[in-house]
């Protein structure tokens, strides 16, 4: 089986970590063949650090390269839609960093284009591809916790004001809140919540800082989700059922799950180069992309287009209530 040949768009912190994670996988399965940045110098520096053969000073040049099986887009949030569109137009399958788009309208356009071009397209919510999530689903499906009644998830860390700048569509919601939402929607399957209650507040700069979301599902089941950029929270998720509960520490990149029958551990290989984020768990989304491409799938069953749209919709509704508006919303 030939290796999956990756092209990287952007050279930021997440791109570094994705490359380091890919390096924990067999070379005959994954190879990064090119990297593009808006500055050739930056691309060359990243290529040198990570031993990538080709570097480009524009995304368009990478789009034209023939020997690329899939493009990973790790650029800033507002770039996700335009760059994904460029790559799909050029006939390239895409793994786009989360959030797939700044709003649902963009997400629908991107998914529509991928379908029209008959190309694989997946949102890189890395959490969804971790073995812990498979284990959680299995435990819920097997009835280990009885009927699920409540999900809670909180994720918050102190983020400097400058990093929350709205110009790059930052803020607590798209950066952190998306993880709590995707956890709840994973537990409740693709069921639409019957009601969404939101409370939150903005910084002086108009960026969402702390947001609480309550999703109410049929049968009085609920998810309470807290995300924030002003305090370090417990950063864990719980699934509460009629017979027991499941705790997932560091649920956005978890290596263990604490269940009624004990703790299940899923250790990760250590990185060979420094990481910006928690661990080498980005390797799981790469493995899933390779599997999907080999099987001729156009979307991953672990993160379907419908799931991405559902999350984008909940984010839109939440932002609307809290009062977060991006330039992309006005188009």
UniProtKB/TrEMBL annotation:
Keyword Lyase (UniProt): no
Chain ranges of the Gfo/Idh/MocA-like oxidoreductase N-terminal domain: 5-122
Listed name of the protein: Trans-1,2-dihydrobenzene-1,2-diol dehydrogenase
Keywords: Oxidoreductase
Assigned EC number: 1.1.1.179, 1.3.1.20
Protein family per UniProt: Belongs to the Gfo/Idh/MocA family.
Record organism: Branchiostoma lanceolatum
Residue stretches spanning the membrane: none
Catalytic reaction equation(s): D-xylose + NADP(+) = D-xylono-1,5-lactone + NADPH + H(+); (1R,2R)-1,2-dihydrobenzene-1,2-diol + NADP(+) = catechol + NADPH + H(+)
Molecular function terms, GO-annotated: D-xylose 1-dehydrogenase (NADP+) activity; nucleotide binding; trans-1,2-dihydrobenzene-1,2-diol dehydrogenase activity
Gene assigned in the entry: DHDH
Residue ranges occupied by any GFO/IDH/MocA-like oxidoreductase domain in the UniProt entry: 133-246
Pfam assignment, any one: GFO_IDH_MocA
Enzyme class: oxidoreductase
Flavoprotein in keyword set: no
SUPFAM superfamilies: Glyceraldehyde-3-phosphate dehydrogenase-like, C-terminal domain (SSF55347), NAD(P)-binding Rossmann-fold domains (SSF51735)
